[in-house]
Structure formats: structure tokens, C-alpha cells
């Protein structure tokens, strides 16, 4: 008996397809939802049914709670999987799903709420005995801040209590700079969030982002599935993730894993979740950063090294099944790296790139997995996340897997939108990455990547010969086999070999 | 033949079934081993290169060995020496080859898209089609004739 008979997937792109696959394997029917922009999207084609939910803008479709629940009820789905992003960490959505007598495939609304508020979650973690970054909240006067900074020890980090995204954030190296930094942060925070409350924290230079996958069922079993090192980031957006982390010793892994389980237990967690830690490589200390109460983008590296299908287990425990493995039964095997292929231009401030995919060819081979949401001919629009695909490679050792990732990226062809493939190649080849020294600020502060300024001789030759082999444009050659009457390759169809 | 991409002028000269390609000081002997949708297998000075190529108006997306370049083709013909401006109905050979078939005669009424001639070049059959509705004003070639690149084949008006 499948755990559910039909699941509605309240998402799009690669993660919707990932979930549809898991459902198919479990014998569950699937309902996709789509906006105007996604009418012909891959996730719509792969589902058993599809429901139109509104205009292209996410607010009017993928973020519309009412319409999504109505779609689930109308299609007689018995559960909703939120994927990641969109409504996945929205406690009211989870509550609304349950109120409609549907199962939310994720944690309880209470767990989401408890971890959603950054100040409250930090407090709860402190109570639960999970290490948090030393710091103070609720300070007012400049003298209080000065006193706090002295106690924490410079450098310190000033940040807005209300916000994220680096707004109002400042690193202060010495007391002489503190007053100006606080005044500046206040102005920025007020401007960005209408709230000028500030936090002061110990600043950890060269910090790494190391997170732990946790997983629990509704019967109180809660374990961790080891770490993921996610320090290759640009503006808080992860680019490359891997497991195991090159920094962790078995002892540290055990400590952090136990802290992660403790953190999740503190909010009565079940289903898949991730505890993010800031890791200080100098002192080998770690601090709770936040919890993501959903499936992560980078879950496949954990799947490959533990052998578990996390999405299938999400569905099964949501239906009430017991998670059958104890912590002792779980092991890490081999190494896995994920590279996120984004439609964005690293040479141009990582601005998203939109357009039609003129060519799209994924790499294949042993140990290569591609989770993608697009195919050739698809339009990449500005409405949604620019993630095109995730390349995940798996092998025996880190060294071999880096090489496998490089080879696979060389075979990943995307034309029509600018991608970060060349950029990721440069990261993978960098000595800092190879030696595991990449911190979360490395891309911004240390890595100085520029695309080659001049095209290679070979690329010029290839372009010239491609043009040369194509008939002059004046005589628009019609071809009955080609859907695209303007495809220049149509002239090559008469090729005899 | 001269082509310009990203302000690099390339000169292509057919030599037998290969081409000599010159960019500035640099030259190479290039052979097309295989051409298929979006992909050319080339032998550049004896080295095998697989190039993925997409066309997007004047833009060319080229990926070789995982490295993607976006090249812009310049229509600037000042640098392209011997070429001259053609009238809209004057159809020229896109590359050196042999006329395989002639489907029309002078004075024939033709419609836009109609195949007028078939040129065989580099193992390919290229259909030369009418760019407009009109009449064949002059036919400059016969079946079996060898033609040079840019040679006028037929004029429609």
C-alpha cells in the first residue's frame, strides 16, 4: 500500500520533478501546479495531472495558499509536498494544509514557527544547550555596545535584528570604528526594515558554513544524516556543496551531529530538516546559525553518501511510518559534490540571465546525477529562481570527485542563457578549494575570477566555419523536418556522411 | 572569405577539402570531420576539437572543452575586401561547390521559398531558394558547373 494515493506538489522546476520521481517510485499519483509562465514546463509534463494556479508572478500562483489548497482538494490529493522555497517554511501554509484535512509533507506548523523567528530560535537553542554565537541583543546606548564589544573581543559583527541579506551588517575591527559602524548600521536597518534595533556578535573570520541534515518520524525517532559543507557562497547563496566536509574530524562530527539532534528535538521536530552551523576553522568551534525546516536544495549529496532516498522518506514518515534506522546504523560512504548550475552571469555581479535555451545537454556517466527542471527550447524567465539544474557527482574520495565534477561540467552544454559553469570550473580548480580553505566570504573577498577577455582561437575558427557552412541568409531555406524555421542548422540536414 | 567576430577578422581559404583559417598572425589548417545539429567536429592543425555552436541572430554561442564564449558577428563589410553588396534577389554561392540541379529557367515565375537550385558543397546539399515572389531574371549557372564562393548563381526580381 502506498503511503498516500495522490500528492500535490506545490512547487516548480527541478525540485517538483525530484518529488514527482519519488512519488512514482512509491506508486503515488501526482498533481503538478503551474503558473502562466510554466504552462509547458517539464514538471507539468511529468505529473499525472496538472492544475493551473494563476499568473506568472509567484505571489499570484506558487505563493497563493488558498488556490493551492483548493487545487489539492479539487484533484482529490491527500497530501501536499511544498518542496523548498515558496511556501515551504510558511507556518500558516502548513497549518492551512492540515486544517483542510490534508497532510503537509514536512514538520509541524509549530516547529516551523519556532525556528522561523531568528531571535526566538537563538534563545531556544541557548536553553537547549546548543552553542550559539556569543553576542547581545536589545542594547541601546553607545556605552552598552562598547562594553559588549569589549567583552566579546574584537572583531565584532553588527547586524540588524529585523533583517537578513547582509543589510545593516558591518564588521568592526577595533573600538575606534565602533560608533560610526553602529550609526551607519542603524540608518541602513531603519531604511531597509523600518526597524533600527541592532545585534552585536563575535565576528568569526574565515567562517565556514557546515550544516547537518536531521530526520525524524512522528514517533519520536530523530537522527542526523551527517554534514554538508556549503561554504562556497556568493551573497549568502550557496553555489557548491559537498559531504563529508574536509574540515571535520570524527570527534567534531559526532559533537556537531549531537548538537543538531538536540536543536531539532528542542522544537519537537519531525520530517527532514537542516541545522546550519557557523564553523570557526581556527578554533574548531561551531555555533548554531539557523534551522531550515524543509528539504534542502543540496539534499542529493546526503542521499548519495548515505544511500537513503530523503524525499521518499519524507513522504513515508509524513504518512506515519516509522523511520527504521538508528544513528548507529547510519554511515557515510564515499564523497559527493553538488554544483548548482544557475542562469546568471558571474562576470556581471551574478545578475540573472534570461532567454531561450538554444542548446541544453547534460553530462552523463558513472557517479553523475543531474536534477534538472529544464530542457532545450525552454524559456528561462525572470519570474523564478535562476537555478537550471544541479550536477551531483559521487565517488570514492574527495580528490576523485573534484575531478569527476570538472569532467562533468566540461560536458554540460548550456546555450542561450549565461551560466556559472565556467565560474564553478575555476572554483573547483582553485588551490583554496582543493585544500578545503574556502570560507563563506571567499568568493567576495579572495576569489578574483574574470572570464577570458578574448575568445580562444579555436572558438573563432569554429564560429567562422559554422557560419561558412551555412547558406546565405537571403535564401531562407525551408525545411519540413525542423520546427524552427530560422534554425541555421536546417541547411545541414541534407548532410550525407 | 572574411568574417568578423568580436572584432577579430578571420580569413578562410579553401584548400582541397580543408580550409586555411587566419586570425591576425595565427593560421591553422582546419578540416570539418562531421557536422550535425548544433555541433561541429573539427580537425584544427591535426587536433580534434568538438565545438557546440548555437545561433542567436548575430550572436554565436560556442562551447569547446567546457569553455563557453559568446561571439558577436559583425556585419561590417568594409574589412571584407573583395565582397560586394548584393541586391536582394541576387543569390550567390555560400561556399565553393558544384551545382547538382537547376529547377527553373529564365523568365519563370517563382514563389518565395521555392527551391531554385541545389548546390553540393562539403558533403552537403544546399537548396538555394527564392527570397521572394518574382520572376527569374537571369540564370548564371548550369547543372554540373563548379562555382566559387560568392559567385552569382541566379537573380530573381
Descriptive notes:
The complex is a heterodimer of chains A (497) and B (157). Chain A is α+β, with helices and mostly antiparallel strands. Chain A has 16 helices and 23 strands. Chain A has helices at 13-26, 42-46, 65-74, 91-99, 109-116, 118-128, 142-152, 178-193, 250-265, 299-306, 310-318, 398-410, 421-429, 431-434, 442-445, 457-468; strands spanning 6-9, 29-35, 49-54, 79-81, 103-104, 135-136, 156-160, 170-172, 198-202, 208-216, 222-234, 237-243, 271-280, 285-292, 335-342, 344-345, 351-352, 355-356, 359-361, 368-372, 379-380, 387-395, 413-415. In chain A, α4 packs antiparallel against α5 and α12 (398-410) packs antiparallel against α13. Chain A is globular, with a radius of gyration of 24 Å. The relative contact order of chain A is 0.11. The model of chain A is unreliable at 471-482 and 491-497 (pLDDT under 50). Chain B has strands spanning 2-5, 8-15, 18-23, 26-36, 39-44, 47-56, 59-64, 67-72, 90-92, 97-102, 109-110, 115-121, 124-129, 134-139, 146-147, 152-156. An 8-stranded antiparallel β-sheet of chain B has the order 1-2-3-4-5-6-7-8, with no helix packed on it. Chain B has a 4-stranded antiparallel β-sheet with strand order 9-16-14-11, with no helix packed on it. Chain B is elongated. The model of chain B is unreliable at 77-86 (pLDDT under 50). The chains are: A alpha+beta (497), B mainly beta (157). At the A-B interface, β23, α13 and α16 of A face β2, β3, β4, β5 and β6 of B.
Amino acid at each position: 500500500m502506498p503511503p498516500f494515493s495522490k500528492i500535490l506538489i506545490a512547487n516548480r522546476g527541478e525540485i517538483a520533478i525530484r518529488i514527482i520521481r519519488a512519488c512514482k517510485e512509491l506508486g503515488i499519483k501526482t498533481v503538478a501546479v503551474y503558473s502562466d509562465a510554466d504552462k509547458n514546463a517539464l514538471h507539468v509534463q511529468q505529473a499525472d495531472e496538472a492544475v493551473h494556479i494563476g499568473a506568472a508572478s509567484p505571489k499570484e500562483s506558487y505563493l497563493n495558499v488558498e488556490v493551492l489548497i483548493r487545487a489539492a482538494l479539487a484533484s482529490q490529493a491527500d497530501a501536499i509536498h511544498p518542496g523548498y522555497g515558496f511556501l515551504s517554511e510558511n507556518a500558516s501554509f502548513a497549518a492551512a494544509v492540515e486544517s483542510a484535512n490534508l497532510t503537509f509533507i514536512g514538520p509541524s506548523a509549530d516547529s516551523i514557527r519556532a525556528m522561523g523567528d531568528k531571535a526566538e530560535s537563538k534563545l531556544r537553542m541557548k536553553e537547549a544547550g546548543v552553542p550559539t554565537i556569543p553576542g547581545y541583543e536589545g542594547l541601546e546606548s553607545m556605552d552598552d555596545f562598547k562594553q559588549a564589544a569589549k567583552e566579546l573581543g574584537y572583531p565584532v559583527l553588527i547586524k540588524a535584528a529585523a533583517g537578513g541579506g547582509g543589510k545593516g551588517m558591518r564588521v568592526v575591527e577595533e573600538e575606534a570604528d565602533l560608533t560610526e559602524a553602529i550609526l551607519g548600521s542603524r540608518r541602513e536597518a531603519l531604511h531597509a526594515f523600518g526597524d533600527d534595533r541592532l545585534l552585536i556578535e563575535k565576528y568569526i573570520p574565515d567562517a565556514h558554513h557546515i550544516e547537518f541534515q536531521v530526520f525524524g518520524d512522528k514517533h519520536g525517532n530523530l537522527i542526523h544524516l551527517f554534514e554538508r559543507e556549503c561554504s562556497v557562497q556568493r551573497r549568502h547563496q550557496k553555489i557548491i556543496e559537498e559531504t563529508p566536509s574536509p574540515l571535520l574530524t570524527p570527534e567534531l562530527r559526532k559533537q556537531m551531529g549531537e548538537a543538531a539532534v538536540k536543536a531539532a528535538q528542542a522544537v519537537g521536530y519531525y520530517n527532514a530538516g537542516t541545522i546550519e552551523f557557523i564553523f570557526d576553522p581556527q578554533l574548531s568551534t561551531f555555533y548554531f546559525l539557523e534551522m531550515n525546516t524543509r528539504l534542502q536544495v543540496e539534499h542529493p549529496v546526503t542521499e548519495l553518501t548515505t544511500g537513503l532516498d530523503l524525499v521518499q522518506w519524507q513522504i513515508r514518515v509524513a504518512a506515519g511510518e516509522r523511520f527504521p534506522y538508528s544513528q548507529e546504523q547510519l554511515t557515510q560512504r564515499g564523497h559527493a559534490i553538488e554544483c548548482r548550475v544557475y542562469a546568471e552571469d558571474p562576470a556581471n555581479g551574478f545578475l540573472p540571465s534570461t532567454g531561450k535555451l538554444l542548446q541544453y545537454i547534460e553530462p552523463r556517466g558513472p557517479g553523475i546525477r543531474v536534477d534538472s527542471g529544464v530542457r532545450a527550447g525552454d524559456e528561462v524567465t525572470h519570474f523564478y529562481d535562476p537555478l537550471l539544474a544541479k550536477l551531483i557527482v559521487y565517488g570514492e574520495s574527495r580528490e576523485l570527485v573534484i575531478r569527476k565534477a570538472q569532467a562533468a561540467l566540461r560536458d554540460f552544454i548550456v546555450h542561450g542563457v549565461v551560466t556559472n559553469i565556467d565560474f564553478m570550473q575555476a572554483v573547483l580548480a582553485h588551490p583554496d578549494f582543493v585544500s578545503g580553505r574556502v570560507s563563506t566570504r571567499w568568493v567576495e573577498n579572495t576569489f578574483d575570477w574574470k572570464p577570458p577577455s578574448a575568445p580562444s582561437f579555436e572558438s573563432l575558427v569554429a564560429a567562422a566555419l559554422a557560419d561558412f557552412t551555412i547558406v546565405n541568409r537571403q535564401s531562407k531555406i525551408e525545411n519540413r523536418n525542423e520546427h524552427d524555421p530560422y534554425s541555421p542548422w536546417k541547411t545541414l540536414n541534407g548532410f550525407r556522411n | 572569405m572574411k568574417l568578423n567576430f568580436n572584432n577579430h577578422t578571420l580569413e578562410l581559404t579553401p584548400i582541397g577539402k580543408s580550409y586555411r583559417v587566419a586570425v591576425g598572425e595565427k593560421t591553422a589548417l582546419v578540416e570539418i570531420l562531421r557536422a550535425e545539429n548544433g555541433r561541429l567536429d573539427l580537425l584544427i592543425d591535426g587536433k580534434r576539437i568538438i565545438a557546440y555552436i548555437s545561433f542567436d541572430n548575430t550572436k554565436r554561442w560556442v562551447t569547446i572543452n567546457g569553455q563557453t564564449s559568446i561571439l558577436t558577428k559583425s556585419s561590417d563589410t568594409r574589412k571584407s575586401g573583395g565582397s560586394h553588396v548584393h541586391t536582394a534577389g541576387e543569390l550567390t554561392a555560400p561556399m565553393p561547390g558544384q551545382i547538382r540541379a537547376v529547377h527553373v529557367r529564365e523568365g519563370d515565375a517563382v514563389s518565395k521559398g521555392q527551391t531554385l537550385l541545389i548546390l553540393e558543397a562539403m558533403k552537403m546539399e544546399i537548396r538555394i531558394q527564392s527570397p521572394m515572389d518574382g520572376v527569374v531574371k537571369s540564370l548564371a549557372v548550369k547543372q554540373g558547373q563548379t562555382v566559387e564562393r560568392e559567385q552569382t548563381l541566379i537573380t530573381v526580381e
